[in-house]
Design goal:
about 290 residues, alpha/beta, eight-stranded parallel sheet, two-stranded antiparallel ribbon, about 40% helix, globular
Length: about 290
């Protein structure tokens, strides 16, 4: 079942609200998991240079669009296509890593990523972390703007940017970021950032949308799962979607990949959405952006 309401970004590019996240997916598993996700109806995939799995992601996507042969000589892929899609059916995000901040370094990093993916363009390119102490994220973003103007990416944005980072960027950016990808789940709801995003026209995308599994055992969520005859993960993903968040859960099994995609045929009522708002703990499962150098 596909998302009934793709989100239009601030430049008019549309993307499905639910995607498949590739964080901590081993390179050797990326091909199979992406192919499985494609079979379940996922069309949006989120990877990064740091994940080390761009080649596997690209091999699976290349097979799906009938271009698998280009990967065989380089990666030993089988070249067997799951089914044939058009490139336009897919939405691919990748990110520039911290070590590659800077204008020229970012352009080189993009060339490496697009070669690894085996694609002619990327749909969304993000700065992975601001690394504010280096003082290079504005220069790095200028490189993203160049890639955008050259048509090598359809949209650009940032990840893990806090309000102060966005304020500094907006003073010098020519293109408003389309997306800010941040840790966001019921125990870390990021209300201030989400409001700022709304004011600036930036879409909010949630990484670690299930709190790395920690939130699944929250008694309130377990109770909602019983009420709606769903799993805790489905309750949380539905909550994200109803808030308007973009969301990219990772899954390592076919069953979980399927489960995470079956969230479009029910809704949480208003009272339960209000109850979910009360689960805020300001609890991070990952690093605070100010601590990432």
């Amino acid at each position: 079942m596909r998302s009934p309401s793709p989100l239009a970004l601030n430049n008019g590019v549309t993307m499905e609200r639910l995607g498949f996240g590739l964080y901590k997916v081993p390179p050797k598993d990326a091909d199979v998991l992406v192919s499985t996700a494609l079979g379940e109806g996922y069309r949006r995939f989120d990877t990064a240079a740091m994940y080390g799995n761009e080649v596997g992601v690209g091999r699976a996507l290349g097979g799906a669009i009938g271009d698998a042969a280009r990967y065989n000589s380089d990666t030993g892929g089988s070249g067997e296509s799951l089914h044939t899609l058009a490139r336009e059916d897919l939405f691919v995000t990748t990110k520039v890593w911290n070590d590659d901040h800077g204008y020229d370094s970012t352009l080189r990093a993009f060339d490496t990523s697009i070669s690894n993916l085996g694609l002619d363009y990327v749909d969304l390119y993000l700065i992975h972390w601001p690394c504010a102490e280096r003082g290079l994220f504005v220069e790095t973003y200028k490189a993203l703007e160049t890639l955008y103007r050259e048509g090598k990416v359809r949209a650009i944005g940032v990840s893990n940017f806090q309000p102060g980072h966005l304020d500094e960027l907006m003073q010098k950016a020519e293109v408003v970021p389309a997306v800010n990808q941040i840790e966001l789940h019921p125990w870390l709801q990021q209300s201030r950032l989400r409001l700022l995003h709304q004011q600036l026209g930036i879409a909010t995308e949630a990484w670690s949308p299930l709190g790395r599994g920690q939130v699944l055992a929250d008694p309130a969520i377990v109770a909602l799962a019983e009420k709606y005859h769903r799993t805790p993960a489905q309750i949380i993903l539905r909550w994200h979607l109803q808030l308007g968040n973009l969301v990219i859960p990772k899954a390592s099994s076919a069953a979980r990949i399927k489960e995470n995609h079956e969230v479009f045929d029910f809704e949480l009522d208003a009272a339960d959405m209000d109850g979910m708002a009360g689960l805020e703990r300001h609890h991070r499962t990952g690093s605070h952006p100010d601590n990432v150098k």
